[in-house]
Design goal:
The protein is α+β, with helices and mostly antiparallel strands and 115 residues long. The protein is 35% helix and 26% strand. Helix 1 crosses helix 3.
């Protein structure tokens, strides 16, 4: 079971990531790009995810994953019930979301991948 403390720990270990509080949402950003956001009640995690894959993610596990709110449908974004994520899965989701926001070289260097 994951919680905000896990999101914060994982997200802030990523290069160029920082935390911001916006309208009671805890957001994690690279520059001005948000790659993860935790709801004020700390139950939902929004995170960067490819638009073309999110419907199948949500359909496959509708108890854990939700489509973004209507205003966020234009973004590469999806939501998850934070308590239903295990910490290793949370880490994978956050790193993938972060990779969408940083230059490829930064991600490759951090993850030890060839450039």
């Amino acid at each position: 079971m994951a919680e905000l403390a896990d999101v914060r720990r994982i997200a802030l270990e990523l290069p160029r990531a920082y935390e911001a509080l916006v309208r009671d949402y805890v957001k994690f950003r690279v520059r001005q790009l948000v790659f993860a956001s935790v709801s004020p009640d700390e139950t939902l995690l929004g995170f960067g995810f490819p638009k073309e894959a999110r419907e199948s993610l949500v359909a496959g596990e509708p108890d854990r994953f939700l489509m973004p709110v209507r205003g966020d449908l234009r973004y590469n974004w999806v939501r998850a019930r934070l308590a239903l994520l295990e910490v290793p899965e949370l880490e994978d989701l956050l790193v993938d979301a972060w990779r969408m926001c940083v230059p490829k070289g930064v991600a490759a260097a951090f993850l030890g991948e060839p450039q």
